[in-house]
Amino acid sequence: MKTMLLISSLLLPGAVHAAIAVVAHPSNQTSLTQDDLVRLYTGKMSSFPDGSSAIPVNLNDSSPLRADFDQKALGRSSSQVKAYWSKLVFTGKGTPPKEVASDSEVLSLVANNPNLIGYVSSDAVSDNVKVLLTID
User: Distance from CA of residue 85 to its chain's centroid?
Assistant: First the structure.
């Protein structure tokens, strides 16, 4: 019985978290690497690899997916990302990505603007956007 409880407790956390889908406008024909994604979300790159303008959209701090994205995609904790952007804003060297409240808001914005890039739970992806990258 204890073994079953242990196994189920180990499996459930992974089952609860869906993969993260990095999405863009359906007309976006570029390919994106994880390194490109990090550079976009840290302000070190402002265009897609094909040269077209790229504007990242972030979920707000209260979203659990935001913490997963910061850790899995950017390799930093949310507090590290916040500190990074605070320094850039203070020195006048950058502006953090616009924040929105929900997956549906990200999907709506990205579907209507070919320059935007965002991320949502892979379960939330719709036909109105194109998945550029999936992060487990």
Answer: 16
Cβ partners under 8 Å of residue 111, min gap 6 = 25, 26, 126, 128, 129
* Largest Cα–Cα separation, the chain: 58
CATH topology of domain 18-135: D-Maltodextrin-Binding Protein; domain 2 (3.40.190)
Q: Which pTM does this prediction carry? A: 0.86
Taking CA 95 as the corner, what is the angle to CA 62 and CA 25, rounded to the nearest 5 degrees? 75
What is the DSSP secondary structure assignment for residue 53, as one 8-state letter?
A: B
Residues 115 and 53 sit within 8 Å (Cβ to Cβ)? yes
In a 3-state reduction of DSSP, which class is residue 32? coil
Contact present, 74 and 41 (Cβ < 8 Å) = yes
Q: Which residue has the tokens 């904790």?
A: 77
- Which residues, other chains included, contact 8 with Cβ-Cβ below 8 Å and sequence gap of 6+? none
Element (H, E) at 65: helix 64-72
pLDDT per residue over 96-112, tens digit each? 999 999 999 999 999 99
